[in-house]
Amino acid sequence: HIAGEQWTVYLVSKNSRHLVDDDCDRGPCSGVCSYDRCKIYINQDLDGEARVHAVLHELVHALMHVSGADKVYGGDAKKDEDLVTMFTPALHRLLKELGFHFPGLYM
User: Fold this and answer.
1) Backbone phi, psi, residue 34, to 5°
2) CA distance 54 to 50
3) C-beta atoms surrounding 74 within 10 Å
4) Fewer beta carbons below 10 Å: N end or C end of the chain?
């Protein structure tokens, strides 16, 4: 659950229609967050660390949306992506330093 909403993470083929997004300019995305469906789709072909990073990245998108924090910058997709991209590595490092493991995400 994220802020009281049930979200689901799916590992999908890199050719999945779920990984197509206008914001991905280099082919299929590593992950996509569907706000209206409360679903996160992750490319199953990513290796362990890249997969964990993609999941965290999409979870941060979900948190920004569910909390309403994306309203601070008017929901602008570019600003949202920039903030999430800057924040995710720090979150990943913090969780690792705290000893958090990411069960089921490593191959």
Assistant:
1) -100, 100
2) 6
3) 8
4) N
Instruction: Please state, in angstroms and rounded to a whole number, the distance separating the CA atoms of residues 58 and 41.
Output: 8
The pLDDT profile of the chain, 107 residues, written as one tens digit per residue, is 888 889 999 999 999 999 987 777 666 789 999 999 999 999 999 998 899 999 999 999 999 999 999 888 888 888 999 999 999 999 999 999 999 988 777 65
Quickly count: other Cβ atoms within 10 Å of residue 40's Cβ. 23
Cβ contacts of 98 within 8 Å, gap of 6 or more: none
Q: Closest Cα partner for 84 from 9, 42, 31? A: 31
φ, ψ for residue 98 (rounded to 5)? -80, 0
Contact 48, 106 (CB under 8 A): yes
